UniProtKB/TrEMBL annotation:
EC number of the protein: 3.1.3.5
Residue ranges of the TM segments: none
InterPro entries hit by this protein: SurE (IPR030048), SurE-like_Pase/nucleotidase (IPR002828), SurE-like_sf (IPR036523)
Chemical reaction(s) catalysed: a ribonucleoside 5'-phosphate + H2O = a ribonucleoside + phosphate
Gene Ontology cellular-component annotations: cytoplasm
Protein name: 5'-nucleotidase SurE
Cellular compartments annotated: Cytoplasm
Cofactor dependency: a divalent metal cation
């Protein structure tokens, strides 16, 4: 089995090493694990691609490359340059440092990497480690993902729905809960949630030169979402698995809108 891994935290991020460990176990002794990851952190870039400027790519080691671009760029670089058209059987994006549940999903470069793989017709899974007070004191904050990741990925590879003939193929968003591995209660299939009392915003700061700069800031991450959704399951100690598509159409509103505009 040939597996490609990427992320949005950058080529030197500790979560990428966790993803490599998971991929190595899934690929098996006769498999291949390839890494093409951003040279620098790309958190929050979503499904961005570097459409208007070129990117440099560098080989760092055997099957390990860094590209000056987004996670989606890295997937494209891997498919059409590094792997020379020999498509991988699976793409793993992550393991992200921090959750990509609820509205975070829409901003996430980790999700963007998996989404691009799905658009290219390749099974893809985004992996993220929810962090919190229970993980702060751990020697390995990624412990839950490291221990439970192989089992979750293997289950999706062997039993998951992939809709291989669909125009917009399924991909999966997996979030590991903010607890030590021994406290993980299991796996729940969830919908994408929404944190109703928080949102991204900006915070102004003045530089020493007197100029005003704005920092993007997130809201509280431990606000629960509705039951049956990703962040709620994570905060209860479960790994959340959310099937996703790149199709943004609100299919449930098509008929109503057509009637209104008739």
């Amino acid at each position: 089995m040939r597996i490609l891994i990427t992320n949005d935290d950058g080529i030197n991020a500790p979560g990428l090493e966790v993803a490599h460990q998971i991929a190595t176990e899934i690929a098996g002794p006769d498999g291949e694990v390839w890494t093409v990851a951003p040279a620098f952190e790309q958190s929050g870039v979503g499904h961005c691609i570097s459409y208007t400027h070129p990117m440099m790519i560098a080989k760092l080691d055997r099957r390990r490359y860094a590209a000056e671009g987004s996670p989606a760029d890295c997937v494209l670089a891997a498919l059409y340059d590094v792997l020379q058209g020999a498509k991988p059987d699976l793409v793993l994006s992550g393991v992200n440092r921090g959750n990509n549940a609820a509205e975070n999903t829409l901003y996430s470069g980790t999700i963007g990497g998996a989404m691009e793989a799905a658009l290219q017709g390749i099974p893809a899974i985004a992996l993220s480690q929810f962090l919190g007070p229970e993980t702060d004191g751990l020697a390995d904050p990624f412990e839950a993902a490291r221990v439970h990741g192989p089992g979750v990925v293997r289950a999706l590879v062997e039993k998951g729905l992939w809709d291989r003939d669909a125009d917009y193929r399924l991909f999966y968003n997996v979030n590991f809960p903010p607890y030590p591995a021994a406290q993980v209660k299991g796996v729940k299939v969830t919908a994408q949630g929404f944190r109703r009392d928080t949102a991204f915003s900006v915070e102004p700061h003045q530089s020493p030169s007197g100029r005003k700069f704005l920092w993007i800031k997130g809201g509280p991450q431990h606000s629960p979402t509705l039951p049956g959704t990703d962040a709620a399951a994570n905060l209860e100690g479960y790994v959340s698995v959310t099937p996703m598509r790149a199709d943004l159409t609100a299919h449930d509103r098509l008929a109503d809108l057509e009637a209104l505009l008739a």
